[in-house]
Design a protein that fits this description.
The complex is a heterodimer of chains A (about 290) and B (about 240).
Chain A lengths: L2 E6 L4 E5 L4 E4 L9 E2 L13 H26 L3 E6 L3 E6 L5 E6 L2 H7 L9 H14 L8 E8 L2 H19 L6 E5 L1 H4 L2 E4 L33 H6 L5 H8 L5 H5 L1 H5 L7 H5 L11 H6 L1
Chain B lengths: L5 H11 L1 H10 L1 H12 L8 H16 L7 H21 L19 H4 L6 H24 L4 H7 L4 H16 L1 H10 L4 H8 L3 H6 L1 H11 L4 H6 L1 H11 L1
Helix pairs in contact in B: 1-2, 3-4, 3-5, 4-5, 8-13, 9-11, 9-13
The chains are: A alpha+beta (about 290), B mainly alpha (about 240).
Chain lengths: ~290, ~240
Amino acid sequence: MKYIVLERHPGYVVVLDEEGRFLKAADRQYQVGQQLDAILPMRPPRRRGRAILFPALTAAACLVLLALSAVRMAQIPYASVYMTINPQVRIDVNRRDTVLTVEGTNPDGEVLTEGYEGRGKELEQVMDELTDRAVEMGWLHPGGQITLTLDAEDGDWVAAHSDSLPAHLNEYLSETLQVTIRVDGGETGGQEAAIPVGPPPTAVPTATPTAAPTAVPTPVPAGDSGYGDSAYGSSETQGDSGYTAATAPPQDSGYGEGDSGYETPAPPEQDSGYDSPEPAEDSGYEDSAYDSE
Amino acid sequence: MDKEHPIVEAVFAAKTDSARADGLIRDCLPFIRGQASRFLGRPCTDQDDEYSIALIAFHEAIQNYSRMRGPFLRYAALTIRSRLIDHQRREKRHRGQISLFAPRDEEDGRTLADTLPEDRDRFAEAETREATRREIEELATVLQRFGASFSDIADNCPRQQRTLEACGQAVRYAAAHPDLLEELLRTGRLPLARLAEGSGIARKTLERHRRYLLAMLLIQTNGYEIIRGHLHRVLKRGEEATA
């Protein structure tokens, strides 16, 4: 390779090689126009040294990690909405209210969600479409009720959606039919807000499942027809009868240790005593509740 | 923050401005010579290879310096020293051979080279060199009108073989279409669009080596026969391709 010296500088010369490269090289007292057979070229500047490359790589790696975690975050269920008409479906959404899964949680719900793809849609859109399907399949009639149960770790999310979701659904359905929409806050919120839709007529079932069964679990001698002889009386052989006998000393005090007292007095005929006018000593348990039914 | 040594500012200015780089080198000549002398263990003269290597190493140090590398002069000293060590290792393989220019042990002071038959025509050589120098000066003047120097062009020159060949292709296309060169001289602008279209090289590649192409295209205009002769390989490749 031959070189022509083009220019001299204090520290170097610029030469032109036969392939058209302009190079800087060490100046060994050359003259402009001189032809050279060999040069000592200057090393080209390192544009991206390790010093720059390393932070750049680190930053790139961080970015990738961030992006990955963002993608993963989008796939993590953040809240669930249970929508109950009669079919019950669970709609899992991520932080941005994008639906991840729609799943029927009872047999009717499975029918409702069969062939339905809600993934990636907005929560409200999915609720609308599911309601439409419910109407089509004949589960939701005018005057029906939709219960929304919101379940999320984040109380704020529940609070925010317990208003907006029924409002949206009401608005969406108001064109076609009137239904009642209930919201309850699931495990965390616990708030049960009954939100009746505009015109009143269909407010029926809201009040139903209220306080009713609170006092139930007492196998007590409520002493009434409800418990009638039949059940107790028929079993002649059993010591149950003794149970009633035991009631004679009325207060439940005997109840605690009762078992012992259970066996001992076993005269089988005492049933009659069961029916017999229980003195109001049981008063602790309000007969009235049962009577009402 | 501590006040920076004024030389650092000069170094950063010299990175992009070859005239200021020359000035900085000129200012630092005693330092550079000192480094070379220290390495040699004796006073260093202008004729020593080590001196020119130290100079080019200093220039490299300017180009590669960043604040992360510490004080500039220390960095430059290190660069010079390692470059000289490299040179010394390279030269090792010639050790034990007699230099043509070493004086023979006769008293007349003639060297070995002087005893060899002279087959070069020194006069013709000097004449060619003079003609070449005139061409180069002419080219430098034209380049100056375009606001470029050979040093700038060396900085803008393609480093990868592939890019160099791509640019060569564009140059050959221009050489085959004199109207392009006329347009360049008339308007003072590189006809990049036509060049890209005609040569089939990506415009981005040409843009990136704009100044290099300017020089190469100017060489294709009239009056640079010797330089063109020197570059005949670049131009002949085109003839081979078209043939």
